[in-house]
């Protein structure tokens, strides 16, 4: 399954593990101090054992605590030539919605826009979904181009062929991953809520062909058990019809 990916650029998108906000049903956004739960750490460790690659050229993570913790755990399982934080991988700035319960937010008149017209919606006092998608997609494309440049500079020798595949591991948030995957698949941003990305899951995109190829989505060791609440960032719910 994975052998065909070879040395070509491959991006693994790892969502942070289950957090205190996930278990509390809160839209955390950039609220400080949101950390992984014990369950989140344990589930994440089990899932990381399933990664198709253990050697990465780059490990890049969102600066928020839950992603720093996830990246630290991942770094104990994989080898990465470089590790860095990137603001481009930050969670959406949900503005006035940050820290509010999902049950409460589902009663907002704008909830339907979030689900059905994401490309046109800006969170009150915060960021638009389109802006977040643009910055994260630009970052992924920049990483892919960097990996391609590294491939071009790789010495052509039998030893080089045994070198590390050109993979990058990006640790970020659910809605960011969904936006990146939607772009890779050519989906309109308005349809990105059709994707589901569980906490602590990884998704894999192969950029070695003429068009990106999604080879895995929302993989966890527990299967769908870790995706009891579909979607990323809490914007999708089990009762996934908008209010009203």
Q: At the first level of CATH, what is the class?
A: Alpha Beta
What summary fits the major beta sheet?
A: 6 strands, mixed
The portion of residues forming beta strands comes to: 15-25%
Q: What order do the strands of the largest sheet run in, or round the barrel if closed?
A: 3-2-4-1-5-6
Specify the CATH homologous superfamily. Phosphoglycerate mutase-like
**Globular, elongated, flat, extended or rod-shaped: what is the shape?**
globular
Measured between the Cα atoms of the first and last residue, the distance is 44 Å
Number of helices: 8
Organism: Brevibacterium celere
InterPro entries: His_Pase_superF_clade-1 (IPR013078), His_PPase_superfam (IPR029033), PGM_Phosphatase (IPR050275)
Protein name: 2,3-bisphosphoglycerate-dependent phosphoglycerate mutase
GO molecular function: phosphatase activity
Structural notes for this entry:
It is a single chain. The protein has 244 residues and is an alpha/beta fold. It has a single domain (10-152, 163-236), classed as Rossmann fold (3-Layer(aba) Sandwich). 32% of the residues lie in helices and 16% in strands. The protein contains eight helices and six strands. The protein has a six-stranded mixed sheet. A hairpin with a 6-residue loop joins strand 5 (202-206) and strand 6. Helix 6 (129-153) packs across helix 8 (174-185). The chain is globular. The termini are far apart. Residues 1-5 and 226-244 have low confidence and may be disordered.
